[in-house]
Amino acid sequence: MAASAKGRFVPVLAVAAALVAALLYRAPFSKSLGGEGCSLLPHDHFWIASDRVVTLGRVGPAAVEVKGGLINAIAVGDYRNFVLRRPLLDYGDAVIMPGLIDVHAHLDEPGRAEWEGFSTGTRAAAAGGITTLVDMPLNSFPSTVSEETLKLKLEAAQDKLYVDVGFWGGLVPENAFNPSALESLLNAGVLGLKSFMCPSGIDDFPMTNSTHIEEGLVTLAKYQRPLLIHAERIPDVEDDDGLDGELDPRSYATYLKSRPPAWEESAIKDLQRAMKDTGAGGRSEGAHIHIVHLSDAKTSLELMKDAKRSGASVTVETCPHYLAFSAEEVPDGDTRFKCAPPIRDGMNRENLWKALLDGHIDMLSSDHSPADPDLKLMEEGNFLKAWGGISSLQFVLPVTWSYGKKYGITLNQLAAWWSENPAKLAGQKDKGAILPGYHADIVVWKPEAQFELDDSHSVYHKHRNISAYLGKELSGKVLSTFVRGNLVFAEDKHAKAACGVTILAK
């Protein structure tokens, strides 16, 4: 063993000098990466190591053995004595963490590939340290509400995936009371179902009410798969604070009034019986309700806490844009910030962070919801007419870290919010952690590295200009992303072939 100038040990490998240059992290990746096909590395058995590996509930020095796409072993502590016979990628003090699992992304293919697509979306995911996506059943066309439409998704995804991708199916009025139709969709491999309690904006994905949801949960209980719910419902009687008179559609305050917290509160109250039925002895015991993109950190959050305390099988997610932005900061006319539910005020943002840190919010997701730029009406700036959705897939790791640092978030918390808990929701027992036998889905990143999302920054989304994060200075640069042991992204370079797999429930 020979000591480096910084006092770190570099293994002496019994391989050719050229291979050593390709494998040691201190050699520039841009010059040394030479793998063909699925991986930027030329082998499938190697070690990766650093002084900050997130595994076994700790963060510290360790080496991870990758073999045949799986994590084969972990050497904790002074790993350099354990890895003399295999190639080693030594990442110094960079963080090695489970790859992110994003359970809420709209890739819009087939039918709306001009909005996004499997190729561009999964390239962006890989560049952001995301190793698994679960695709929403809308805004593609047709929506994924049947076995036949799922097949169209699978065909559209073929040979385009840089990360692994699973699929949610849709619970809509036409299949909610038809157990055979739902069972056909579930048997075809969707990981669970998704429904809207308000108009979705997509014609072939109509809204459901609590009765549809209760019936769908009975079928889901047989499969022990979750129902994801967009929990906004127009109250039967709206209060006097809604839209009235002449209001400026360019004003963000106008849009905020158009979707008040009462919509989220009304939906969750309407779900109380359905949530109770998921508990022990309930009609839909074995099913699980997951509330997507919670925005209201007041009454809606308290209702979810009560449901959990009562024994309901429920979880909650929120999104980085609700944690990064506040209504007071959204410029009038800047429709890049429009989403549903809306980004609310600064105090609400503080309460969301507190709920996340206290464990009342279980996980994070991107809700990457891109669109054709013309639909965002950025020149007109009309919040009431523009298409909603935040384009964010590539940025969620540095955004979460950058805005969470002042709250003292830890690497273990990041791994729980973005890897461990999403894996459980999606039923992926071999993903979400760095443990022997798990898929070698890994992100390597530098939390201290700062960068600006300016015009020179490589962005792989279909339409970079619609992202609300452009122009922001962030911390946390992704260095490498491994999917099932394949180095699919490193130093702004993707593998030559897209070898991610489609994930189907069994």
Automatic annotation (TrEMBL):
<dbReference type="GO" id="GO:0004038">
    <property type="term" value="F:allantoinase activity"/>
</dbReference>
<keyword id="KW-0479">Metal-binding</keyword>
<dbReference type="InterPro" id="IPR050138">
    <property type="entry name" value="DHOase/Allantoinase_Hydrolase"/>
</dbReference>
<feature type="domain" description="Amidohydrolase-related">
    <location>
        <begin position="95"/>
        <end position="488"/>
    </location>
</feature>
<comment type="function">
    <text>Catalyzes the conversion of allantoin (5-ureidohydantoin) to allantoate by hydrolytic cleavage of the five-member hydantoin ring. Catalyzes the first step of the ureide allantoin degradation followed by the sequential activity of AAH, UGLYAH and UAH which allows a complete purine breakdown without the intermediate generation of urea.</text>
</comment>
<comment type="pathway">
    <text>Nitrogen metabolism; (S)-allantoin degradation; allantoate from (S)-allantoin: step 1/1.</text>
</comment>
<dbReference type="InterPro" id="IPR017593">
    <property type="entry name" value="Allantoinase"/>
</dbReference>
<dbReference type="Pfam" id="PF24890">
    <property type="entry name" value="ALN_composite"/>
</dbReference>
<comment type="similarity">
    <text>Belongs to the metallo-dependent hydrolases superfamily. Allantoinase family.</text>
</comment>
<keyword id="KW-0862">Zinc</keyword>
<feature type="domain" description="Allantoinase composite">
    <location>
        <begin position="41"/>
        <end position="94"/>
    </location>
</feature>
<protein>
    <recommendedName>
        <fullName>allantoinase</fullName>
        <ecNumber>3.5.2.5</ecNumber>
    </recommendedName>
</protein>
<dbReference type="InterPro" id="IPR006680">
    <property type="entry name" value="Amidohydro-rel"/>
</dbReference>
<keyword id="KW-0378">Hydrolase</keyword>
<dbReference type="Pfam" id="PF01979">
    <property type="entry name" value="Amidohydro_1"/>
</dbReference>
<comment type="subunit">
    <text>Homotetramer.</text>
</comment>
<dbReference type="InterPro" id="IPR032466">
    <property type="entry name" value="Metal_Hydrolase"/>
</dbReference>
<dbReference type="InterPro" id="IPR056854">
    <property type="entry name" value="ALN_composite"/>
</dbReference>
<dbReference type="InterPro" id="IPR011059">
    <property type="entry name" value="Metal-dep_hydrolase_composite"/>
</dbReference>
<dbReference type="GO" id="GO:0046872">
    <property type="term" value="F:metal ion binding"/>
</dbReference>
